[in-house]
Design a protein that fits this description.
Blueprint (H helix, E strand, L loop, with lengths): L9 E7 L2 H9 L8 E6 L7 H11 L7 E5 L3 E3 L4 H5 L6 E3 L1 E3 L7 E7 L8 E4 L7 E2 L1 E2 L3 E5 H7 L12 H13 L3 E3 L4 E3 L7 H13 L7 E2 L5 E2 L2 H16 L1 H10 E5 L4 E6 L2 E6 L11
Parallel strand pairs: 1-2, 1-3, 5-12, 7-13
Antiparallel strand pairs: 3-11, 4-13, 6-7, 6-10, 7-8, 9-12, 14-15, 16-17, 17-18
């Protein structure tokens, strides 16, 4: 990283099918100014995302240090990620949305999300501090330093064509080398709510077998659990017990409850009295406030 004032020292890597969207959100994005760009044209030759990413990792000159930023074509940074990565731990993997635990929906995220055309725009999650550790992060954005890739020979599993490849990359890095995955609090907008096709469950079964002897069970932002079957079943039982005693949380929320809603407002309830006020913070201008 140069002086941390822009994205010099960042290499944005994407597999592209919608070239107009990629040009607008990634390569032509002012927040990414100063970075290098590697785009694989999957209209010309449709290969798996993992094969594309590995071809990049295999061809990189590791005498040049850089942050590799693997992003989808529909992912937009709303501020330069370079200054944050300049201060980040090069021994960790980073995402911008991740599963903190095995409880479904217990995610660390503070971001905009919308349909591909920008409709149904909303703020998701809530503000967080620091660079919290998660079990896995989402595949829409994965960041790793070249020195970490070089030291441990990190690669993507090409048996995973499109789903769960980031989660596998992170689980494998932790299981084999103790490498943590963290979340970076950079403003971003993902133009997709995602979808789960039958292929997703085939690849999830593959990971269940791959990590049948893992040291722990891993939660994902897709609300899936991956790891040894006995641990996965135990986590599911714990989640059911947690839901069973949800009435206790509802009573507690009568006295004190705070929630950031999708429309960029925060709901606050104290002793049954409710208030609603704008709380989009750094996303205010993007929400039209």
């Amino acid at each position: 990283m140069a002086d941390g004032s822009d994205c010099s020292g960042c290499v944005f890597v994407a597999v592209v099918r919608d070239h107009d969207m990629y040009a607008r959100l990634v390569k032509g994005n002012p927040s990414n100014a100063g970075g290098e760009f590697v785009a694989f044209d999957n209209l010309a030759e449709n290969l798996s995302v993992t094969a594309r990413y590995n071809s990049f990792l295999d061809s990189w000159d590791y005498s040049r240090e850089a942050w590799f930023v693997f992003v989808h074509e529909d992912y937009e940074f709303l501020e330069p990620v370079g200054p944050l990565l300049a201060k980040a731990d090069r021994k960790s993997i980073y995402g911008t949305c991740g599963a903190r635990s095995t409880h479904p929906g217990d995610d660390i995220v503070w971001a905009l999300n919308s349909n591909r055309d920008g409709t149904n725009l909303g703020v998701y999650g809530r503000p967080f501090r620091g660079q919290p550790t998660v079990l896995t992060s989402d595949c829409n954005c994965l960041m790793v330093h070249s020195s970490l890739v070089r030291e441990f020979g990190l690669r993507f599993d090409e048996k995973l064509t499109f789903d769960l490849y980031a989660e596998d990359f992170e689980i494998g890095a932790f299981e084999r080398f103790g490498i943590a995955t963290r979340i970076l609090g950079v403003a971003n907008h993902h133009y997709s709510f995602g979808n789960i096709a039958p292929r997703f469950f085939v690849q999830r079964r593959y990971l269940m077998d791959k990590y049948r002897d893992a040291s722990r069970v891993y939660g994902t932002t897709t609300k899936q659990l991956i790891g040894p079957l006995t641990l996965v079943l135990a986590a599911k039982r714990a989640n059911r017990r947690r839901r069973r005693f949800g009435w206790l949380r509802r009573i507690g929320r009568f006295f004190w409850y705070r929630k950031y809603s999708r429309d960029g407002y925060m709901r606050l309830r104290v002793l049954g009295f409710r208030a609603r006020f704008r709380a989009a913070g750094k996303y205010a201008e993007h929400m039209g406030f």
